[in-house]
Amino acid sequence: MRRDTIRERQRRCLHLPVLVIIAIVGTQAVGFGQWLHYTAADVPQKADGTADLTAPAPRLPGGKPDFSGIWHTAVVNQCDPKTGLFCGNTEIGGSPLALDLGRDLRGGLPYQPWAAQLVKQRFSKDDPHVRCLPDNPPRTWVMPHLTKALHTPRELVLLYEVNAMYRQIFIDGRPQPDDPTPTWNGYSTATWDGDTLIIQTKGFRDDLWIDMSGAPMTNSATMTERLRRPNYGTLEVQLTVDDPKVYTRPWTVSMKQEIMPDTELIDEFCLENEKSWQHMQVPETPRPAGLTGRWSTSGQASGQTGGPNVFVLRQDGDMLAGTIEGRPGEPTYKIVDGIVRGNQVRFFVLHEADDDPEVLANGGTPFHNVAKGTFSENEIVVSGSRENTKIREYNLVLKRIRN
Questions:
Q1: Furthest C-alpha separation in the chain
Q2: Nearest to residue 14, comparing CAs of 269, 264, 277?
Q3: The pLDDT of residue 6
Q4: What pTM did the predictor assign?
């Protein structure tokens, strides 16, 4: 069974020097050093001595289910002999949802139009996971790594195997923090509904990926997880994401975790001998002068009210960000997720402030402008649309401001 061989496969992924040391010390060093095949004494057993994964779930003092244990996605990507995808893989396997979290939803994830375009522009090399940055939830439920849950009546702690990450879920009645500093994991509080633990998480960063396809999650997101343990060996996770910046409506997916009763976490630090991101890079192609600097609209743009404005752009490789500055007293807007390819440019402009006149005119709903076009050393010509607003199209000509 895969459960019996799961750590044997992962052990083969350890660096060569570790294997050399094991060979010198002896085979007992594996069990001594990593506890790869060690069954805890409290695992329920069948008459034949094997783990009884259908036994009743353990209980906390007070009678609520105890989610403690080492968990891994119960459904993993299967080998495709036609393409060779996921064949000969020495990892323990990730869920198909790791590639596309909305694959089981009719029509896929309900993106706002700008977000759908952003996902089409994203590449594997841009994935924070590839760059050894943290696997933020909900990615931890579906990636090919283990999570160890430590559960008390007042707190659930999730220890994620990669990069020694952890997540704290408080069940002590505390409220969500006011004006939290945005983080990769957000801030999680929970309450019980019978035997279901309902976890609410807010306070995320504004630039997260939730799967390998590049589905975004922003600082406006509320993530709700409903956890149930129907028996000893199964953890059911129902996940709802409500992020009005990115999606047209809240959406829900369900997944299952299975317990790993005979192993322990091992060190797995992504940056040790990491080469994937470097190999994914493509040679730089000659491009016109960079876009870093200040650019001015020469007057009112077609289909746009207001102006002129100053675009303050920052180019880093093929990535572009910045701000749009208006007249005194007017809002400053963020330029995000810009991409530069040759003399082509594309970027998004956020309209998200509650007091933004354009947001108010849009019924209080935040929206994004999407702009794309071409540029030369001293001029940028872009056109685009304002999603979910009455103003659909606009055209801009920006001139470089020389000091």
A1: 83
A2: 269
A3: 44
A4: 0.65
**Segments making up each domain of the chain, as ranges:** 53-279, 293-400
Q: What is the CATH number of domain 293-400?
A: 2.40.128
Lowest-pLDDT choice from 131-140, 213-222, 371-380: 371-380
User: How far is the C-alpha of 378 from the C-alpha of 193, rounded, in Å?
Assistant: 61
Contact between 391 and 303 under an 8 Å Cβ cutoff? The reply is: yes
What's the pLDDT tens digit per position in 307-351?
578 999 999 888 899 998 877 777 788 888 888 988 889 888 888
The answer to whether the CB of 117 falls within 8 A of the CB of 337 is no
